[in-house]
Specification:
The chain is of the alpha+beta class. The chain has helices at 42-49, 64-101, 112-138, 145-161, 163-172, 178-197, 201-218, 223-227, 236-251, 257-265, 286-301, 312-322, 329-339, 416-428, and strands spanning 6-10, 19-22, 37-38, 54-58, 347-350, 355-360, 370-375, 387-389, 405-408, 434-435. The strands form 2 sheets. A 6-stranded mixed β-sheet has the order 9-5-6-7-8-10. The chain has a 4-stranded antiparallel β-sheet with strand order 1-4-2-3, with no helix packed on it. A hairpin with a 4-residue loop joins strand 5 (347-350) and strand 6 (355-360). Helix 3 runs antiparallel to helix 4 and helix 7 crosses helix 11.
Length: 438
């Protein structure tokens, strides 16, 4: 006699592909037309549970391929649940850091032309202070860190009044010591991004001071180590700058716990790939996470090896690839909103073929900034410089009159002297008039 294989289980353990041969009540008391049912979907399980609590399964009539399908369905459901929880967690994290650190709403108080004249003095003073600080630490001499922190507060105030002025100076001004300019640009980026995010003055000053002081250790390592910097894989030689910075600050008896905490953690990454302690996620202080993001962006558009520079737009693409890996998603997105695709000082190509430098931004319409063209559509150097107000083209009729920023251009693509000419021209002018299309 053929012996059938039966297995008794509770209804709660039913799965797709199982063949139910018996219930704990007669089949006649159910709505099923015939005795026995193959579980093809969740509705079949629900229907059986309305009549029975315990069933017998016929293994021979069961269909394993449906069980595999059930496994895939359950796996997909679990993955969706994990993704939903992750998204909720990211939203919660975003709401948390924004609520805690970003409460201010700053307005433009001065035009870029007026602010440039005062920020130029701040810039020159700060450059001398950083030069002195780096040289003194290399000679084991005491330096006045507090004076530099006071200058940092002046950077913050200038950026709050108008973020474009110092951004312009950082991009255009030349120097014989690239490491000094690098740290100043970091501090200015910190001020600009923090301002746009709505951070208060205390946090802005701490952020900018920390970014400035990273130059201490960087000035102590070799040019080869600096030139070999890679945002996804830092060398041991490059990593030494962090230890050197913290050591020198301790020797200077600079003990601002907040600033030192930022410096000590700004090289960490949320996926644990950073250094020195491979911290993850919220174990890294917020201002340190922001500092690491700012430095990564700066070294993409202004690397120690200038030949490796990429445009700000391509740097944004790189940061988008790092979302959820090196940097949290919400922070990258807010950072990109704050700086825009074409920040002040960025070299750009316009839709009419001209190349120029962004002089000031339109924070509502990023492609409608003020631009100073320096190379014509035919590749010739423009002798008579003027400020081109791209927002004016919005008020013109006809597609031929619409001029906008087409793409960013790496800084290495245009001779440095042309940028210096634009810088000197701006400072010679008593007033700046926009060039309108006629």
């Amino acid at each position: 006699m053929l012996e059938l294989e039966y297995q008794g289980i509770p209804v709660s353990q039913l799965k797709l592909g199982m063949y139910v041969s018996r219930l704990d009540i007669p089949w006649e008391r159910t709505h099923f037309p015939i005795q026995g049912i193959l579980i093809r979907n969740l509705q079949d399980i629900e229907a059986i549970s309305n009549y029975s609590q315990f069933v017998l399964i016929d293994e021979e009539k069961s269909q394993p391929e449906l069980r595999l399908q059930n496994h895939r369905i359950n796996t997909a459901v679990k993955e969706r649940a994990v993704n939903v929880r992750a998204q909720l967690k990211k939203k919660t994290q975003k709401a948390s850091w924004k609520k805690k650190h970003c409460k201010e709403n700053y307005k433009i108080e001065k035009t870029i032309q007026k602010e440039m004249r005062s920020s130029n003095e701040i810039f020159g003073k700060l450059e001398k202070q950083i030069s002195t600080m780096c040289e003194h630490t290399m000679r084991c001499r005491r330096t006045n860190v507090e004076a530099m922190v006071d200058s940092t507060a002046q950077i913050v105030e200038s950026v709050i009044r108008n973020p474009d002025a110092l951004a312009w100076l950082c991009r255009i001004r030349d120097t014989r010591k690239p490491i000094y300019m690098h740290t100043i640009r970091l501090a200015v980026w910190g001020g600009i991004v923090g301002r746009q995010l709505g951070m208060n003055r205390t946090a802005l000053t701490q952020l900018c001071a920390a970014l400035l002081m990273t130059g201490i250790g960087k000035s102590h390592i070799s040019e080869k180590a600096l030139a070999g910097y890679c945002p996804t894989k830092t060398t041991l030689d490059y990593q030494k700058h962090l230890h050197e910075t913290l050591y020198q600050l301790d020797q200077m008896r600079y003990h601002s716990a907040d600033v030192v905490q930022i410096i000590g953690n700004y090289c960490e990454r949320i996926d644990g790939s950073g250094f020195p302690e491979h911290k993850r996620d919220a174990a890294i202080p917020f201002l340190a996470r922001l500092s690491g993001l700012i430095e990564t962006y700066e070294l993409l558009i202004n690397p120690y090896d200038a030949s490796r520079a990429i445009s700000p737009a391509n740097a944004v693409v790189f940061l988008n690839r790092c979302k959820g890996q090196q940097f949290e998603v919400s922070l990258v997105e807010e950072f990109i909103k704050a700086i825009g695709i074409y920040p002040t000082g960025t070299l750009v190509e316009l839709s009419d073929g001209q190349k120029g430098v962004v002089f000031s931004q339109n924070y509502e319409k990023r492609l409608r900034a003020d631009v100073i063209p320096i190379i014509s559509a035919h590749g010739n150097i423009i002798e008579k410089l003027q400020v081109l107000d791209l927002s004016y083209t919005d008020r013109r009729e006809g597609e031929d009159d619409q001029v906008y920023i087409r793409k960013g251009v790496p800084s290495s693509n245009i001779p440095r002297g042309l940028l210096e000419n634009a810088h000197n021209w701006m400072f010679r002018k008593k007033g700046v008039k926009s060039l309108f299309f006629s």
